[in-house]
């Protein structure tokens, strides 16, 4: 499996996400794949990617998208959008538009009654509903505000997503 960094070791203490603002763990989500959902892009091989919560068969914390395009130097350098949301089908996506790491969503504390959308800024998240810091494949970090969040998410992930 080709990886952006070329290493195969996974540090298990960095695979657990802090589920709430007060719990220990990492506070970021790795977005290591493209096109896990929606119209399949058949240009690139598909396989497991995007370490997140859950468990692999070997017991290591995390889960993988088994039907996604793994982000590598090759796939991200020439990625063409497959989904038509926001009229992006056929868009040659530059490195500065592809997400790599984002701030993690947090689970609601007992008694919370507000919105809690997955991968969308909500009042209980780190910056409330204002937005999130995103690390893009080209290395820059940008605070993506809620009003531009879904467009940026789709642009950087090609999942056919059009709303929270």
Short recap of the structure:
The protein has 164 residues and is of the alpha+beta class. The chain has one domain.
Report on this structure.
The chain is 10% helix and 19% strand. The protein is globular. Residues 53-62 have low confidence and may be disordered. The protein contains 2 helices and 9 strands, in the order E-E-E-H-E-E-E-E-E-E-H. The chain has helices at 73-77, 146-157, and strands at 28-30, 33-34, 69-70, 79-80, 92-93, 99-103, 126-129, 131-136, 141-145. The strands form 3 sheets. Strands 1-6-8-9 form a 4-stranded antiparallel sheet, covered by helices on one side. Strands 2-3 form a two-stranded antiparallel ribbon. Strands 4-5 form a two-stranded antiparallel ribbon. The chain is of the alpha+beta class and 164 residues long. The protein has one domain (12-157).
